[in-house]
Amino acid sequence: MSGITTINPATEERIGSYDLMSDAQVSDAVQACHAAFRDWRGMPVEDRAAVIRAIGGKLRENKEEFAALMTREVGKLIGDSRDEIELCAAICEFTADAGPRELADEERDIPGGRGVVSYAPVGVIYGIQPWNFPCYQAVRYAVANLMAGNGVLLKHAENCTGSGLMLKRIFEAAGLPRNLFTVLLIDHDQSDRVIENPLVRGVTMTGSDGAGRVIAAKAAENLKKTVLELGSNDAYIVLDDADLDVAVEACVQGRIYNNGQTCVNAKRFVVTDRNYDAFVERFAEKMAAIEMGDPTEEATRLGPMARSDLRDKLAEQVEESIRKGARAIVGGTVPDRKGAYYPATVLVDVAPGQPAYDDELFGPVASVIRATDDADAMRIANDSRYGLGGGIFSKDVERARRLASEQFDTGMISVNGFNVAIPNMPFGGVKDSGYGREHGGFGMKEFVNAKSVYLAEA
């Protein structure tokens, strides 16, 4: 039986090692989660909400320890790690507040009586999650499904195994019944068998669109519903009337947040001809000033990427883009230093056929694209197989709102700013960025049985 070893991407030092579970242990874990679910589903929704609220409190109590662990495991800036814990606590609070209302029975008039729509939990939900937000990625789907009354399994990314196990301890310390949230230390073949297990009633996954196709196919083969969040190549549009001070500042923040490793990072910067030269000059100047450093230091603005293989893939995408006509005016080369570091990078002359235009560059690399005018900028923004997030910069906020609602083919749009996730707003995308929604009350109903109950008049 092989195991997992976690490595600090900043120092290349070993953090910990973990044994993979045997097939029998996995089967027992699924059975135990299902047994816990059978008790949990009968608990009044208000009581479940109280446990969810307590989880938020425990997350805050353990914020410093958990944040330090995430920074060691995936290289997040320590301030970003703390912010992640706060976001997760806020998700717990929103879910506890909104859950009883969102999951309450609804009455409707029907011929000859009353109709009742009730939302019943369906069972054990299996989540396959990535490493870039070790706490948030798990909390995002787990808390919503626990609120709905389901049981939850987590297969976390190997390099943040410690974070997954710490989250389990925090959940149970807050009063969540044992085994209701279960972390599986398993390989890909075992994961497929978890999806096949008849006690598993739904699958949710965050990752690449390639991996999403594999998971969705396996789930469909077993008639399991899926929710998929599959990354993106988010376009931030700088229109003719944009405030460049606002646009440049937000675009820099949007590109390097979480060391550039966020599905909703700003990645493509589509700038109209009127603003292009000024934007590039100012944006490049600010990106060039961002220095790499120790992610545990408060002043560091750019830490390492989460693994050296991910850094090497990003470097290959940049090199291929340059071979195909792009130019790196900032950064663009792997530094000669220990750790999985890659510098803040700005590419111009970006065009279709280059990875910088077509694909997701999951790291601190900005692709700047020239548009002739506002209409052309919107065309370029939508010229992507992805559609998760995006942004519009314009002094005419109402016009930007109309463009966001009516023309931008993506799931989440920031106007004159950059946002990652807000608990009371839906999170999710379209096209190759996946389907389904989390947050905003939507996630609580993705894996429930919406029952129709017909009450005839006496």
From TrEMBL:
<keyword id="KW-0521">NADP</keyword>
<dbReference type="InterPro" id="IPR016161">
    <property type="entry name" value="Ald_DH/histidinol_DH"/>
</dbReference>
<dbReference type="InterPro" id="IPR016163">
    <property type="entry name" value="Ald_DH_C"/>
</dbReference>
<dbReference type="InterPro" id="IPR016162">
    <property type="entry name" value="Ald_DH_N"/>
</dbReference>
<keyword id="KW-0560">Oxidoreductase</keyword>
<dbReference type="Pfam" id="PF00171">
    <property type="entry name" value="Aldedh"/>
</dbReference>
<dbReference type="GO" id="GO:0004030">
    <property type="term" value="F:aldehyde dehydrogenase [NAD(P)+] activity"/>
</dbReference>
<dbReference type="InterPro" id="IPR044148">
    <property type="entry name" value="ALDH_GabD1-like"/>
</dbReference>
<comment type="similarity">
    <text>Belongs to the aldehyde dehydrogenase family.</text>
</comment>
<dbReference type="GO" id="GO:0004777">
    <property type="term" value="F:succinate-semialdehyde dehydrogenase (NAD+) activity"/>
</dbReference>
<protein>
    <submittedName>
        <fullName>NAD-dependent succinate-semialdehyde dehydrogenase</fullName>
    </submittedName>
</protein>
<dbReference type="InterPro" id="IPR015590">
    <property type="entry name" value="Aldehyde_DH_dom"/>
</dbReference>
<feature type="domain" description="Aldehyde dehydrogenase">
    <location>
        <begin position="4"/>
        <end position="453"/>
    </location>
</feature>
<dbReference type="InterPro" id="IPR047110">
    <property type="entry name" value="GABD/Sad-like"/>
</dbReference>
